[in-house]
Amino acid sequence: MREIRTAYTWLGIAENATEDQIKKAWREAAKKCHPDRGGKEKDFQKMKSSYECLIDPVKRRKYDLKIKKVRLQERLRSTQVKAAAAFQNFWQQQEREEREFQRRREEARQEQG
User: Fold this and answer.
1) Portion of the chain with pLDDT greater than 90, in percent
2) Hey, is 89 helix, strand or coil?
């Protein structure tokens, strides 16, 4: 399963981080990634929006539900791919066995006739 970049990973914190941990991570990230200090504007904006999302309890709750949904979808997609591969392998095995059966039957006919 592929790794999903989240607001938590952008700030380098755990999903159960406290408000103080979020603020501390934001301050450190802002120092490192601020465009005035040689950081990339795009990365800084990502971290800023991550902070704004996680610091607000209502936005954070909605975001956490969204992340949970995406992870469930990824898990389902992964399971479906595995099931499809197993099903394909099963039918390929069935075809091999059928060809082998046909070959043996043909050999038996040739021996009799």
Assistant:
1) 52
2) helix
Mind listing the pLDDT tens digit for each residue in 47-87?
A: 999 999 999 999 999 999 999 999 888 888 888 888 888 88
Q: Which of 41, 67, 39 is nearest to 54 (CA)?
A: 67
* Other CB atoms within 10 Å distance of the CB of residue 68: 11
**d(Cα 74, Cα 10) in Å, to the nearest integer?**
20
> What are the extents of the domains in the chain?
7-112
How far apart are the C-alpha atoms of 69 and 79, rounded to whole Å? Answer: 15
Cβ atoms of 1 and 79 within 8 Å: the answer is no
Q: What is the pTM of this model?
A: 0.63
CATH number of this structure's domain 7-112: 1.10.287.110
